[in-house]
Specification:
Two copies of one chain form a homodimer.
Chain A: H1 5-12, H2 16-23, H3 31-44, H4 50-57, E1 62-67, H5 75-91, E2 95-100, H6 108-119, E3 123-126, H7 134-142, E4 147-150, E5 159-163, H8 165-178, E6 184-188, H9 194-209, E7 219-221, H10 226-238, E8 245-248, H11 251-263, E9 273-275, H12 281-285, E10 292-294, H13 297-312, E11 320-323, E12 326-328
Parallel strand pairs in A: 1-2, 1-3, 3-4, 4-5, 5-11, 6-7, 6-8, 8-9
Antiparallel strand pairs in A: 10-12
The structure holds a DNA duplex.
Pfam families (chains A, B): LacI, Peripla_BP_3
Domain HTH lacI-type (chains A, B): 3-57
Protein name (chains A, B): LacI family DNA-binding transcriptional regulator
Chain lengths: 337, 337
DNA sequence: GTGAAAGCGCTAACAA
DNA sequence: TTGTTAGCGCTTTCAC
C-alpha cells in the first residue's frame, strides 16, 4: 500500500539509515549512492510519513504563525502574510498552522504553552503587534522555540523582515508638502504599536525638515479603525483653522477621514487631501482612490518564514531583511487649496 | 520531562491500554476507572503526543481547509471562515491546516494528492467555489476523505452549512421595490458560482412577483471584483433609460457601482440606490454605507467544521445546516427619484 | 472490563 | 561511508 522508507532502501540496495540520510540531506553519503536513492524515491513516489518522522526525530516540521486577531482590523493584512508564510513553508516541505492569540486575554501564555506542548512547532512566525510582547518572547526563549518576526520593533538579534516605515511616512508627508500643504494633520494608530510610532516619527521628521513647527491640535490619536478615523477627522474639521491635508497612519483610518470629509461638505482632494498607509485593496476601491504607502505583506510573510526556516535548517543563519517601500500616489491628494 | 501515557497509567494504577481507552472515549471502562484515569491525566497535565497517536492509530487529527484564492477577491470572507473552522477544530482538539488550490491550474488534483499523501487529513472543509468542483469531489471520495462544505450547490448527501441566498436576494430586491424602484438592475457574479446563480434567481423571483418584465439590458455580467462592478455600472449608467437602483451580487461590485456613479455625476442614494451582498467590513466604511445582506461567514465556517467533526467522530452524523440571513439596510438605498 | 505483546515508520546512537 | 540495534509514544490485536 503505502511506500515506506524501507521499501525505498530495498529497491536502492542500501540500508534504511542511508535512505534517511538522503532524505534529510545529511553528509556522509557518496554522490552515487545519493543519486541512486533519489532515483528510487522518485520512481516509487515515496512520501515520508510526517508523524513517524517527528516521533522518531523529535522535530515536527511544523511552523506556527501567531497573530492577534483582536487588534487587527484589516484582516487582509494577516491573510496576505499568511499566504506568504505558507508559500515558504510549502517550498521547504514544512507544514504551517495558524494560531490566534489575544494579548488582552489573561490566558495568552497558557494558550501559547498549550500550542507548544500540543503541537511542538519547530519555530513560529510573529506578526504585529505581538512581535514585541515581552512575555511571549520570554516564553519562547525558555521553551527554546525559535521565531522570526514581521516588522518587529526591537531589531537586535531578531530574525525576520522589516520596512523602513519611518522613511516611508516621511516620504508621503513630503509628497503633501510638495503639493503646497502646510497645515498637515496626522492621525496616530494604536499607541505602543511600532507602526504607530514609526509613522508618527516620520511625520514629525518631514514637518521639522520643512521648518514647520508642530501644531499639537493637528496630531490626534486614533486606533487603526475606520471609526476612529471618522472621529479624529471630525475633530480636525471642526478646528477654526482646519488642516488642508490629513495623513492617517493606516488606510482604514484614512477611509474614515474621507467619510468625515463628506459629512463636513469637504471635497477630497479639492478641499482636503487625504493619505494613508498599507495599500490595502480598499484603498483602490475608494473614490477618489487613496494615496498611500505600499506594504508588500505577502512578500514580507514569505521572507520572515524563510529566515526562520534557514535558521531551523542550519543553513547559515537567518537575518533581519529590510525591504524597500514605494509610494502609491492616487486621486486623494492634490495641490493645497 | 514529558508526561507520557505510561506515566499516567502508572499513577492511576492501570495499564496503558486503559488510559488509551479513556483518552479516546472508548467503551469497556467502568466509570470509576475512567474517573481515576481522568484525574491522573488532569493532575499530571498530560498531553498526548499527536505524532505518536497518528502513527499508531493511523489517523491524523488534522482537518484541512481548502480554498481557491484566485477566484476570491474578498479575502476577508475566507479569513472569517478560517477563523470559524479553527475554533471548531480547537474545541475538539483537532489541528487545522489551510491549503490554497487553484481550479484554473492544471495541477489541482496533483496538489490535492500531495496534500493527502503528505499530511493524511482526517477530513477537509471546502469553501466556495470549489465546493462543487467535480474532479475534487471525485478524488476525495476515491481517497476516502470525508468533507464538509460551506454553501455547496449540490446539497444532496452533502455535509456542511448553507444560507438561503435566493430568498435573501429576493428580500433585498423587495426592499428596493418597496422604496418605489421599478427599473432595478442586477450585476451578476462569476458565472457558474452557486452564489451568482442564487442571487440572480432571487432577483428574478422578486421582479416577477412584482409583475415586472425583465429588461435584459438591466442584467449585466460581472466577476465579483471591484473593477467588474465599475465596468458593469458604466454600461448601465450610459443607457438612455438608466436604472434607478442597482443590486450587485456582492459588496465589491457594489462598491464599483458606487464609484461609477461618481464618474457619471450621480449621487447615491439620491439619484441611484445601490446594494450588495455579503456585508464585508468594506460595506460599512463606504460613504454612504452599503445596504447589503449579512452573511455570518465565521459562524458558517464553524458550523461546517463541526458537521465534519461530528461525522469523523461518529457521534451521530453530520448534516447540512441551514442558517438564517438578515438584511442590513444602510444609507446607499433610498426612495426612487 | 482489562492487560500483554507487537508494531506503526522513522531516526539516534553506536558499531563496523 | 555505511549498517545495526533500539526505541520514539501511542494503538492495535488478541488473550484473559
Amino acid at each position: 500500500m503505502r511506500v515506506r522508507l524501507e521499501d525505498v532502501a530495498r529497491k536502492a540496495g542500501v540500508s534504511p539509515k542511508t535512505v534517511s540520510r538522503v532524505l534529510n540531506d545529511e553528509a556522509n553519503v557518496t554522490d552515487t549512492t545519493r543519486e541512486r536513492v533519489r532515483a528510487a524515491m522518485e520512481e516509487m513516489d515515496y512520501r515520508p510519513h510526517p508523524s513517524a518522522r517527528s516521533l522518531a526525530g523529535n522535530r515536527s516540521f511544523l511552523v506556527a504563525m501567531l497573530y492577534d486577531n483582536n487588534d487587527n482590523p484589516a484582516s487582509t493584512y494577516l491573510a496576505e502574510i499568511q499566504d506568504g508564510v505558507l508559500e515558504a513553508c510549502d517550498a521547504h516541505r514544512y507544514s504551517m498552522m495558524v494560531r490566534p492569540l489575544r494579548m488582552r486575554d489573561g490566558d495568552f501564555i497558557r494558550r501559547l504553552d498549550a500550542l507548544i506542548s500540543d503541537h511542538h512547532p519547530d519555530g513560529v512566525v510573529l506578526t504585529p503587534p505581538i512581535t514585541d510582547y515581552a512575555p511571549l518572547l520570554k516564553r519562547l526563549r525558555e521553551a527554546n522555540v525559535p521565531y522570526a518576526s514581521v516588522s518587529p520593533v526591537r531589531q537586535a538579534k531578531t530574525l525576520g523582515v522589516r520596512m523602513d516605515e519611518q522613511q516611508a511616512a516621511r516620504a508621503i508627508v513630503e509628497h503633501l508638502l510638495a503639493l503646497g500643504h502646510r497645515r498637515i494633520a496626522h492621525v496616530i494608530g494604536i499607541a505602543n504599536h511600532g507602526a504607530s510610532r514609526w509613522r508618527l516619527a516620520g511625520y514629525r521628521e518631514a514637518m521639522a525638515a520643512a521648518g514647520l513647527d508642530e501644531d499639537p491640535a493637528l496630531v490626534v490619536q486614533g486606533a487603526f479603525t475606520f471609526a476612529s478615523g471618522v472621529e479624529a477627522a471630525r475633530h480636525l474639521f471642526s478646528l477654526p483653522d482646519r488642516p488642508t491635508a490629513v495623513f492617517a497612519a493606516n488606510d482604514d483610518m484614512a477611509t474614515g477621514v474621507m467619510w468625515a470629509a463628506g459629512e463636513y461638505g469637504l471635497k477630497v482632494p479639492h478641499d482636503v487631501s487625504v493619505c494613508g498607509f498599507d495599500d490595502t485593496p480598499l484603498s483602490r476601491q475608494l473614490w477618489p482612490a487613496l494615496t498611500t504607502v505600499q506594504q508588500p505583506s505577502r512578500e514580507m510573510g514569505k521572507i520572515a518564514a524563510e529566515q526562520l526556516l534557514s535558521e531551523l535548517r542550519g543553513h547559515g543563519t537567518g537575518k533581519l531583511v529590510q525591504i524597500p517601500f514605494s509610494l502609491q500616489i492616487r486621486g486623494s491628494t492634490a495641490a493645497a487649496p
